[in-house]
Design goal:
Length: 486
């Protein structure tokens, strides 16, 4: 700040120089070049040059340019190289870039075994429904951790893409797909139904706006969701021909009885809302019961080595090399199932052992299953396996990286000073100290940085990651219930 003297005045008037534009720390790792005139290979090389000048890149926003197939191959060729893999990119947006099937194959090569990319936006490009490209793209998604994919406004994909893409799609981390205005008709409905009712489907959001699915296609999809899909939480079906009265040719003999039910789009929408509300309610219940079951199973099923002093049963080997059964180790929780169990045990060998652990493993698991009646048998077994394994215990050594939660400044325990002044230590960023002594969690009601929850709580993120690893993010039918429903 400088000062100068005005005529007739004896005091200095300060001049405030314009400060440099402020850029947030997170935005420094974003490359946003929307409608920047990037063209073909030269445009891709310009993006690569910008990336090489940065230490970290997490987002590539390159919409409304003219990269085309050549520019896409150049860009993703670099991203697939050793130099490009060091950038942990979580979001890529390439909408309206004139990319065709060659560019989609280049994207597929980058997606293969990619564990960092979470969101991919490819709206309004020039993709076509080539069967071989659809299969390669689906296989690449299966091996990645991609969660969100947008292929909206690609009208040349048509039913052929869905017919080859969905049967191959088996991605456990895949949560959202946009297929609006993709040239789909009612012939795509059977492929959508088979995927939505299969165990491969983990979708939470499905958008099918602007496709001519009509009453016949939409009715079959809604019935399938009501019957056998418990993962979907949001679905959009605007402008799909529901308001048009169905012709007799659109309805099969099995659908004639339900014609009166689906003649109005409001009826379809109400049925869909009921199914999605059911899925959301069951999702919250499943997650709550899974966390509670882990809490008690960890205490009751984890066996310290000192408790396993008795001779162990032999290792159960697989039936053959091609058998899918899991080889059980000698100290596995399930290794004692099916083994002879002594009806009487000498009192001297009991000691101070908790009576519950003396029960056969089958009875222990059956008793614990009453703590989570909503979970399926497979979900409970996955939790039991996780809880009984010592390898899943957290490390005893403190983490040297700053992985703690950010304290909530709206909390009444939050004060400016350090620990000596009754506040929290800025060097820790984990614990808040009360004025009267003691400590409290840095999160207020599970939220970090105030009621807006602008920063995701680390503990909540770890819980979500664990729920996904044991596949307890949605209600799951048992095999016998699935057979009975069919």
């Amino acid at each position: 700040m400088d000062a100068f003297m005005l005529p007739g005045y004896s005091q200095h008037v300060p001049i405030r120089r314009s400060a440099a534009p402020k850029v947030s720390l997170a935005a420094r790792s974003h490359i946003e070049s929307m409608d920047a005139g990037l063209t073909s290979v030269s445009g891709a090389q310009e993006v690569i040059k910008d990336m090489l000048s940065r230490r970290s890149v997490t987002k590539l926003i390159l919409g409304h340019n003219h990269l085309g197939d050549e520019g896409c191959e150049e860009l993703f060729g670099f991203l697939s190289s050793e130099a490009g893999r060091k950038y942990k990119i979580v979001e890529i947006s390439l909408n309206s870039n004139g990319i065709g099937n060659r560019g989609l194959l280049a994207i597929s090569r980058y997606l293969r075994d990619n564990t960092t990319l979470k969101e991919l936006f490819l709206q309004n490009n020039a993709f076509s429904g080539d069967p071989s490209v659809a299969v390669v793209f689906a296989l690449a998604i299966n091996s990645s951790r991609l969660e969100t994919l947008s292929l909206a406004s690609n009208p040349h994909l048509t039913d052929h893409f869905v017919a080859h893409f969905l049967p191959v799609l088996d991605a456990p981390y895949f949560r959202e797909i946009h297929l609006s205005v993709c040239g789909l008709s009612h012939e795509a409905a059977p492929h959508l139904v088979r995927y939505l009712t299969s165990q491969r489907c983990q979708l939470h959001v499905l958008k099918l706006n602007g496709n001519q699915l009509r009453v016949r296609g939409v009715a079959s999809i809604v019935r399938a969701i009501h019957r056998a899909n418990y993962t979907l939480l949001r679905m959009e079906l605007y402008a799909t021909g529901l308001s048009t009265q169905p012709d007799d040719s659109e309805l099969s003999s099995e659908e004639e009885d339900s014609q009166a039910r689906f003649v109005k789009w409001q009826d379809v929408e109400n049925d869909l809302k009921r199914s999605l509300t059911r899925n959301l309610t069951l999702k919250h219940l499943v997650e709550k019961e899974a966390l509670a079951l882990l809490r008690y199973s960890r205490v009751l099923l984890l066996r310290p080595k000192a408790r396993d002093a008795s001779p162990l049963p032999p290792v159960v080997n697989p039936c053959s090399e091609s058998c899918s059964c899991v080889q059980l180790s000698a100290n596995s929780l399930f290794s004692s199932i099916g083994q002879p169990y002594p009806l009487s045990t000498p009192p001297s060998s009991l000691g101070s052992q908790f009576p519950f652990v003396r029960l056969p493993t089958e009875l222990q698991l059956h008793i614990l299953s009453y703590l989570a009646p909503t979970l399926s048998n497979a979900q409970r077994l996955r939790i039991f396996t996780y809880a009984s394994s010592p390898s899943t215990l957290p490390t005893l050594l403190p983490c040297l990286t700053s992985g703690g939660c950010i304290p909530d400044p709206a909390s009444p325990q939050f004060t400016i000073g350090g620990p000596a002044a009754g506040g929290f230590g800025l060097s820790t960023g984990i614990t808040l100290r009360k004025r009267g002594g003691g400590s409290v969690s840095a999160c207020a009601s599970g939220k970090c940085m105030g009621a807006g929850n602008s920063v995701l709580c680390r503990r909540e993120a770890e819980r979500s990651q664990w729920l996904a690893s044991v596949r307890c993010t949605a209600f799951e039918l048992d095999d016998e219930e699935t057979v009975g429903s069919d």
